[in-house]
Specification:
The protein has 496 residues and is α+β, with helices and mostly antiparallel strands. Helix content is 54%, strand content 9%. It is built from 18 helices and twelve strands. Helix 7 packs parallel to helix 18, helix 12 packs across helix 18 and helix 15 crosses helix 18.
Length: 496
């Protein structure tokens, strides 16, 4: 390019760029007002680099800033998006209670709609959302959960046996092993025999691409992890849709349900039959192959990473609280023996009151999904003195709420969930692990069952010892929170 032309362009572009930067700063400060947060932000990117490099420190800083505010909130700026961090439990409930088109939209991820697709359960409102949750409810009844328990136990037992062979008394990191076990458990419980062999290998590969892309900058261009994740989600949904079609054929033929998708398709077949037999009854909505594949992916995502986090922290916390470990083993041994050659039943699982209290305390003190991002659809008066501007991404902190209200909240104390103290009722509003409001987790009983079952089996079948380092218990985001050392333990068989 001729130097004179370049000089002429520069004389216009540089002032224009400076003007844009100036307007961006003014817009940020106008939205922030008196809320604690950076006084100036890096042009266009904001704090995106520091968020990606060290998310733990980034969110700790936001929490510390929020503590300095009487409102319990702080602000920041990430790639053109104004961000509000909510530490206050009451204000978090206000956000959860106002998920509707003219207030907050649950998004699951700052750029989630592009990543997860339009049919995702978390983007639904009003009657549509209620109808779908009603359609999903039969998948998490006591009957359904009793079908899942032996499946969960069989898969967990297979993986624990492999862990023993890998360790044999030497230290191994559990994070990826827990992740693989959870992925296998979720796949087997949700879609059973309809995902196997080569299709299962492809599915696991795509799910890993999705997981990696979650933590990367949202650059939707070829070669970038975010683009790979978005395309992987599309393939995952298609695969799960095929599983649903095969299950539906089996249920139409009168087959017995053996997994979640069978129970779901059995109910849909019943509703479709009723619609065909009686005039005026419409077939159930939200039952296209793509929609069902999307909802199955929602379940998988919810069950996978959050559960992996909880299993790791359960091992880490029990290792550092031996007196609690002894009580868990004593309770489990009074109800079930691993040498009995029988599975733990759903009724026996319900009898393990103290073990469930341990599971709930793990979830409280190390909430796996620490933040629940929402998008402000319109200006929303969060308090009398501060209005969240339209387009802001709002992060209610489930993690911060867990340390409010409870007695000695930083102490690992499962007894708080026992009948004598009932802190789960007294401080119910602070236990936000499964969310609140219309979008509260529909599968929370399944998640608790899985954690209780794992704790019961792991502690009964194995002697384990954590290989500690100075920073092993530091929190890292991957994307849910995990111990920094990936929970490195040595394992030995404890019983025949």
């Amino acid at each position: 390019m001729d130097s004179s032309i370049w000089a002429a362009l520069s004389s216009y572009l540089v002032p224009l760029l400076l003007l844009l930067v100036f307007l961006e700063q003014i817009s940020y400060l106008k939205k922030k007002r008196t809320v604690p947060g950076p006084s100036l932000v890096f042009p266009f990117l904001g704090s995106a680099v520091s968020l990606v490099r060290n998310p733990t420190r980034f969110w700790e800083n936001q929490s510390n800033l929020a503590r300095t505010s009487p409102l319990g909130v702080s602000a920041n700026y990430i790639i053109g998006k104004f961000v509000v961090f909510v530490r206050s439990t009451d204000l978090s409930h206000k956000v959860f209670a106002n998920v509707r088109p003219d207030a907050f939209h649950l998004i699951g991820h700052p750029f989630g709609k592009k990543l997860f697709g339009d049919h995702n359960l978390i983007y639904m409102f009003g009657q549509d959302h209620k109808d779908l949750r009603r359609l999903l409810a039969p998948n998490f009844t006591p009957r359904a959960l009793s079908i899942y328990v032996p499946i969960q136990q069989r898969v967990v037992a297979e993986h624990l046996a492999r862990w023993l062979r890998l360790s044999n008394g030497t230290p191994i990191s559990l994070r990826w092993l827990c992740r693989d076990m959870n992925l296998d458990t979720s796949q087997t419980v949700f879609v059973g025999p309809y995902l196997s062999g080569e299709s299962k290998e492809r599915f696991n590969f795509d799910y890993n691409l999705f997981n990696v892309g979650l933590m990367k900058l949202p650059i939707d261009l070829p070669g970038f992890a975010f683009r790979e994740a978005r395309l992987a989600v599309k393939r995952l949904v298609e695969t799960l849709g095929v599983c649903a079609e095969e299950s539906k054929k089996k249920m139409k033929g009168g087959g017995e349900p053996t997994c979640l998708i069978d129970l779901w398709m059995q109910d849909i077949v019943r509703l479709e039959t009723e619609a065909g037999e009686e005039s005026g009854i419409l077939p159930p909505p939200h039952t296209s192959t793509t929609e069902i594949g999307t909802y199955l992916f929602d379940f998988l995502f919810a069950a996978q990473d959050a559960s992996t986090s909880s299993l790791l922290w359960a091992v880490a916390l029990l290792d550092s609280h031996q007196e609690i470990l002894v009580k868990v083993r004593r309770e489990v041994a009074s109800i079930w023996s691993p040498e009995s050659s029988t599975s733990i039943t759903a009724d026996q699982l319900r009898e393990m009151k103290y073990t469930e209290a341990v599971a709930r305390e793990v979830l409280r003190i190390r909430a796996p999904a620490t933040l629940v991002p929402h998008l402000a659809g319109k200006d929303f008066p969060l308090t009398d003195t501060y209005t969240i501007p339209k387009g802001a991404i709002v992060f209610p902190s489930v993690y911060e709420s867990s340390f409010q209200g409870f007695v000695e909240p930083y102490r690992f104390d499962p007894d708080r969930f026992m009948d004598e103290r009932q802190e789960d009722r007294v401080y119910k509003k602070n236990f936000l692990v499964f969310g609140a409001g219309a979008h509260q987790c529909v599968g929370q009983r399944y998640a608790i069952n899985h954690l209780v079952l794992f704790i019961a089996m792991f502690t009964s079948l194995m002697d384990f010892k954590r290989h500690r380092s100075d920073d092993c218990d530091e929190i890292v985001y991957v994307p849910t929170i995990c111990p920094k050392d990936d929970c490195k333990v040595s394992l030995l068989q404890r019983c025949a």
